[in-house]
Amino acid sequence: MKLIIPHIHKTLGGTGFFSKISEKGEIKELRVTVLEGLRQIEGILIGRRIFETPLVISRICGICPTSHILNACRALEYALGIKVSEQTEALRRLITSAQIVQSHSAHLFFMSLADFFDIEDEKELNKKFSKESQAVLELRQFALRVISAIGGRTVHPITPRPGGFTKLPDKQALKDILKDYDQAEQAALMLVDLFQKIEYPKLKRKTRLASSYSEKDYPYHLGKQIKIGNEIFDPEGFFFNQVEEDLKTPPAKRVKYKGKTYMVGAIARIKNNNLEEKSYIQEFINKKNISEDDFFANNFYNSYCQAVEILHFIKEIKKEILDLEIKQDPYIEYTLRPGKGLGLLEAPRGILLSYLEVGKDGRIADCSIITPTAQYLNNLEEDLKILMKEIADFPKEKKIRRIKTLIRAYDPCIACAVH
Asked: Alpha carbon of 9 to those of 12, 241, 392: distances in Å?
């Protein structure tokens, strides 16, 4: 028996599903099908000049371009021996926080929420959750204003560059955004409450959760270590020695860790790090009467973790704006030289690794980018195999609905995976 979903809407990029199951219920074949063409942006970058490289890389994605441009700047800074100012670091933390808020809020309400209530009509969703819908729009607008103030525009920011920014934001303009902070925080709390009350499908499969790691704070902007399971690596050790890329089955990259699948994103970050709002996770566990192990073995809960992260990063935005001091020049000048650099940060969907090599001519000689979706596509398929057994007796339409729900809970960005 075959079960085919030709196209799954409300994902970023074309996605489908195919499975072949024997009469005995054995899964003979299962895959998430990628309906996008290979974009070859890594190849396009070869020979590019330094100043234009981050701008080209940001075109990988229209939802998380900020993550791509900042990580490219970081990789080039390592390659060229540039040490940026604390002012630049603060602005990057701020715009990264806003990036995560706008991406998570769009995914949770407009792509994932309807699945948990079997709603197909968007009008019905907005009618059922009219108050929440308005709150999410205001929340995203709050975050987009921060991105625009720092990045020059809301999509594909143009001010980040190696060494800093081409132009600094107006401090008062950023403070003015905080006039709407209380409203944004209430919207975030509303999302946490909404996604805590949802009845999530059952799924139990212990997987490796990988994220940036820090003993001191909640890492997202400047990744110095990677934690996967109980192992901790420096980014270079993970990228060059632990990660295995499957480039034989284009158009999407598919990555494994020591030949094994793993999960990245909000659920992995919360599992691996200390978070002030982690009390909301414990509250969820208590109300659902499950164990912590059960929570982190069910990737449907990634949606709830995103809601908790929104609340955290809304608070980070306020803190960073209030602490921000703009005193120095917008960027540090650099001298071209041969070099190699690896950038690591947490994009909304998880670990983003950007490797750039500068040749003797001062142009890009080599490039490799590993996006979050490329890292968890294999893990998603393993989860789907377990799910297929759970829903074996479901009617076909209900099976399809449940499959879509899990895929969208992962929040895949196929556009990033086929870069």
From this structure: 8, 36, 23
User: Can you tell me the mean pLDDT for 374-389?
Assistant: 96
Close Cβ partners of 414 (under 8 Å, ≥ 6 residues apart):
11, 12, 13, 14, 15, 34, 35, 36, 252, 373
Domain ranges in the chain are 2-417
Rounded Cα–Cα distance for residues 263 and 345 (Å): 16
Q: Are strands 208-212 and 262-263 parallel, antiparallel or unpaired?
A: parallel
Distance from C-alpha of 14 to C-alpha of 414, rounded to nearest angstrom: 7
Considering only the top CATH level, what class is 2-417? mainly alpha
Residue 114 contacts residue 323 (beta carbons within 8 Å): no
Separation CA 242–CA 165 (nearest Å): 33
Per-residue pLDDT, averaged over 348-355, amounts to 97
Residue 206 has pLDDT above 80, yes or no: yes
Q: Which two tokens stand for residue 335?
A: 């001298």
Task: Report the share of the chain in percent with pLDDT over 70.
Answer: 100
CA–CA separation, 292 and 290 (whole Å):
7
pLDDT in tens, 297-336: 999 999 999 999 999 999 999 999 999 999 889 999 999 9
Q: What is the pLDDT of residues 43-60, one digit of tens each?
A: 899 999 999 999 999 998
How big is the chain, counted in residues? 419
CB 411 within 8 A of CB 304: no
Scanning 24-64, the segments in alpha helix (DSSP H) are: 41-45, 53-57
Q: Which residue has the tokens 């190849």?
A: 43
What's the burial of 36, exposed, middle or buried (CB within 10 Å: 0-12/13-18/19+)? middle
Q: What is the DSSP string of 286-301?
A: HHHT--HHHHHT-GGG
At 38 the pLDDT is 82
Nearest to 67 by CA among 111, 34, 104: 104
